[in-house]
């Protein structure tokens, strides 16, 4: 476990926080019902197993975002450094000693020191979850694999704008990573999945 890290990608206020309930109602509903519980379970499992936990958030280095990648500039994506939008959502809030890396491109390997940090810590296996499956997750998984990391994508702890785009992305990078659910991840750690709550009579 000392060579394994959980990487949570862009699970922040500006992408999946409360304001999204009005801007992207269906996306936010699916996030709260499925993706967030899976990501929380993955985080709990990783902390309990002693895995390194690293968060990335979309955040500019400059107030006007001039440092962003071209795709972020074209899409108008970016959040001011230190802003509320750039913070990890409360449900997945980092512990004091967990690493948070601001990024200004789809892949954290391109705009952060993630690779340097992982190698310094001795990480060989990277478990990835977050949003969006067909954008930042896709780039992160492929870049990690190209750098020699053994990658696992937690399929139910990732989300795209639509279920169809999510499925297409998983099919696209299937050769770059092992794909499993959080329940399967738990079983691999030797921890059973929690029993579903019974409805009140």
CATH architecture field: 3-Layer(aba) Sandwich
The level of helicity is 40-55%
Structural class: alpha/beta
List unreliable stretches of 5+ residues.
none
Overall number of structural domains? 1
Strand fraction equals 15-25%
Determine and state the CATH class.
Answer: Alpha Beta
Distance between the termini: 42 Å
Mean pLDDT comes to 93
Number of strands: 6
Superfamily (CATH H level) name: Isochorismatase-like
Characterize the overall form: globular
User: What do we call the CATH topology?
Assistant: Rossmann fold
Number of helices: 9
Spatial arrangement of strands, main beta sheet? 3-2-1-4-5-6
Q: How much is the radius of gyration in Å?
A: 16 Å
Instruction: Please write the string of helix (H) and strand (E) elements.
Output: EHHHEHEHHEHEHEH
What characterizes the major β-sheet? 6 strands, parallel
């Amino acid at each position: 476990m000392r060579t394994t890290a959980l990487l949570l990608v862009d699970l922040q206020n500006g992408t999946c926080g409360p304001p999204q309930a009005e801007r992207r109602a269906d996306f936010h509903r699916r996030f709260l019902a499925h993706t967030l519980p899976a990501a929380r379970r993955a985080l709990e499992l990783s902390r309990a197993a002693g895995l390194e936990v690293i968060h990335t958030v979309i955040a500019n280095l400059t107030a006007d975002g001039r440092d962003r990648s071209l795709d972020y500039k074209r899409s108008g994506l970016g959040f001011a450094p230190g802003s509320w939008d750039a913070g990890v959502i409360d449900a997945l809030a980092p512990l004091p000693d967990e690493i948070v890396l601001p990024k200004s491109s789809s892949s954290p390997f391109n705009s952060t020191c993630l690779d340097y940090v992982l190698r310094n810590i001795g990480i060989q296996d990277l478990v990835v979850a977050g949003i969006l499956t067909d954008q930042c997750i896709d780039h992160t998984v492929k870049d990690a694999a190209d750098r020699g990391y053994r990658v696992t994508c937690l399929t139910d702890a990732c989300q795209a704008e639509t279920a169809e785009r999510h499925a297409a992305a998983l099919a696209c990078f299937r050769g770059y990573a092992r794909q499993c659910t959080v329940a399967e991840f738990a079983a691999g750690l030797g921890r059973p999945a929690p029993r579903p709550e019974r409805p009140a009579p």
